[in-house]
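User: Reviewer 2 asked us to show a designed sequence for the structure in our supplementary figure. I'm pasting the structure tokens here. Could you produce the per-position amino acids so we can include them in the response letter?
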């Protein structure tokens, strides 16, 4: 039997006036019907380029298919080489026979069309059904992907949904036409672990029902271990290892594969530096086991890590008292709200100087709203927020500028938080210019270069625009911009969710290093409980706007008291034997 999709010696270059970039180098892959192939690698390793090449979504130029074929072979149909296929044939295949779930839902959804109509559009184009049937099927799919109040979600616009809810709309849109091949490019990145587990089960269930092939691209090795039948590891545009999921995780052969497994935060005690891929790949002629080397790296760095956050725990830097944030619902004829949605419901807590407080909960539970309220980006309905013993409600414009030097936010969606018309150098320098830090251009440019190096990006990229970077690289740019202000308090809103584990390890080490050097205090919002446990001193669990459990990170993670917390922890995907 022929494979559903066969990639044969594919090479893709990007040609610009300055240089030629070899994005994909002679890769060969096969996906069979009824099989899930996991593709894992660093940001910029060529994973997304490969998936976009399958659907011929790479603009030519600058993309150039140097060599290779992509053969799509449905049952009872002649094989088709997608490379060079005419546009009419490609349009007939896209969405109907090969569907894709993109990495960033906000940039993939039309902001001026409600969510239901966007899914209906795919059904009406490919499935010759009436509008009434398309609406009915859309609502059924919203139910399948566990969206709350599907009929209301149908009429809402993307900006009215949380990040996880937008991603679920994208999943419904991709699956609604029952494609033969589904390409998932980081489809669960924005989802909390309980919804992620539901979506993974749904993808597996549909794949088995439809005998569908799936290419599952992700940086989460736990997800790959849970869902994939086979795994391909990509590094710098090449496939360095392919095998069954069991063999990849239990008997990896390539040093890079071993490095990816070793640098997961779930495996390491708190306050120990995570080993990174460079620790594994940068030493020539090593004869010892890379996993052992990773442990040695941790041991060697252990003396660098202090535990200063416990010394001033009686000195709170942020205090929240009875905080309530409500949003108006539908308006009556006189423009008055008929109802309110309570996003944050009577929340009180403290964050101590030098401490990292973790906040975890499902999408839409109020985590992001709470974080933005702390930064005066959202006006609380009631309650009190103090920073360094000063009430920060109702500040003037000048006072807010001063506050911005002290408090910063690392956004969840890096693309929508970067101005597409500014180079990344200008984007990072802009806060310094507005607030008067590093007064001349030369000093700002030097600091921008230093910040790029600190987040593992080359200073030579300073004049590039956001669209020229991968999702993970854009997230690092946003982190660098937040750090440009030398803040004392940072709200990290899913700040490592878009990063593969190797880069995630670098960023987490960087954040810990900055905590020690600058005495940073953080509110760390994440759906990844293993990262929360590793990074945070205390954890708060949020559900429907309320804090339902709080305590020391180790206690909450290993000895949860609340049944909801237990569900969250049980839903965390893990690598077999790890």
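Assistant: Here is a per-position design you can include in the supplement:
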């Amino acid at each position: 039997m022929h494979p559903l999709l066969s990639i044969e010696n594919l090479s893709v270059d990007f040609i610009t006036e300055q240089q030629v970039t070899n994005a994909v180098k002679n890769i060969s892959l096969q996906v069979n019907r009824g099989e899930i192939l996991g593709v894992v690698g660093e940001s910029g390793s060529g994973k997304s380029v490969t998936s976009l090449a399958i659907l011929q979504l790479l603009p030519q130029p600058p993309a150039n298919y140097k060599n290779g074929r992509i053969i799509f072979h449905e049952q009872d149909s002649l094989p088709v080489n997608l490379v060079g296929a005419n546009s009419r044939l490609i349009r007939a295949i896209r969405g109907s026979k090969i569907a894709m779930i993109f990495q960033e839902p906000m940039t993939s959804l039309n902001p001026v069309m409600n969510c239901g109509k966007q899914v209906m559009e795919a059904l009406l184009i490919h499935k010759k059904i009436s509008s009434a049937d398309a609406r009915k099927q859309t609502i059924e799919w919203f139910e399948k992907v566990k969206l709350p109040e599907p009929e209301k979600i149908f009429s809402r616009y993307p900006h009215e949904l949380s990040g996880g809810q937008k991603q679920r709309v994208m999943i419904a849109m991709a699956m609604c036409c029952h494609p033969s091949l589904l390409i998932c490019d980081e489809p669960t990145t924005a989802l909390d672990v309980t919804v992620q587990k539901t979506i993974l089960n749904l993808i597996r269930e549909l794949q088995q029902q439809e005998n569908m092939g799936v290419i599952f691209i992700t940086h989460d090795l736990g997800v790959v271990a849970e869902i994939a039948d086979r795994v391909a590891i990509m590094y710098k545009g090449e496939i360095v290892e392919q095998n069954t999921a069991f063999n990849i995780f239990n008997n990896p052969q390539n040093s890079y594969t071993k490095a990816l497994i070793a640098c997961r935060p779930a495996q390491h005690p708190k306050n120990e530096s995570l080993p990174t891929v460079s620790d594994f790949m940068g030493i020539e002629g090593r004869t010892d086991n890379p996993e052992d080397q990773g442990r040695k790296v941790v041991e060697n760095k252990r003396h660098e890590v202090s535990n200063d956050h416990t010394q001033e725990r009686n000195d709170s830097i942020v205090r929240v008292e009875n905080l309530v944030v409500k949003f108006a619902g539908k308006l009556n004829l006189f423009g008055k709200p008929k109802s309110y949605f309570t996003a944050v419901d009577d929340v009180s807590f403290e964050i101590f100087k030098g401490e990292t407080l973790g906040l975890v909960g499902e999408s839409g539970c109020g985590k992001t709203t709470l974080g933005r309220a702390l930064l005066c980006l959202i006006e609380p309905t009631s309650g009190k927020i103090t920073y360094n013993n000063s009430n920060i409600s109702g500040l003037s414009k000048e006072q807010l500028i001063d506050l911005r030097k002290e408090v910063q936010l690392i956004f969840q969606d890096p693309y929508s938080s970067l101005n597409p018309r500014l180079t990344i150098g200008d984007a990072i320098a802009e806060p310094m210019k507005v607030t008067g830090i590093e007064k001349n251009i030369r000093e700002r440019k030097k600091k921008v270069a230093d910040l790029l190096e600190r987040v593992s990006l080359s200073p030579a990229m300073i004049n590039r625009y956001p669209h020229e970077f991968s999702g993970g690289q854009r997230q690092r740019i946003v982190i660098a911009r937040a750090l440009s202000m030398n803040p004392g308090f940072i709200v990290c809103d899913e700040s490592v969710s878009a990063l593969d584990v190797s880069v995630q390890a670098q960023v987490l080490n960087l954040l810990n290093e900055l905590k020690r050097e600058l005495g940073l205090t953080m509110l760390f919002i994440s759906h990844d409980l293993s990262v929360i446990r590793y990074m945070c001193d205390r954890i708060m669990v949020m559900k429907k706007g309320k804090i339902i459990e709080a305590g020391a990170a180790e206690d909450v993670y290993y000895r949860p008291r609340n049944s909801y917390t237990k569900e969250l922890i049980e839903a965390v995907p893990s690598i077999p034997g790890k």
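For the response letter, you might also mention the following. The longest strand covers residues 316-328. Confidence is low (pLDDT under 50) at residues 283-312.
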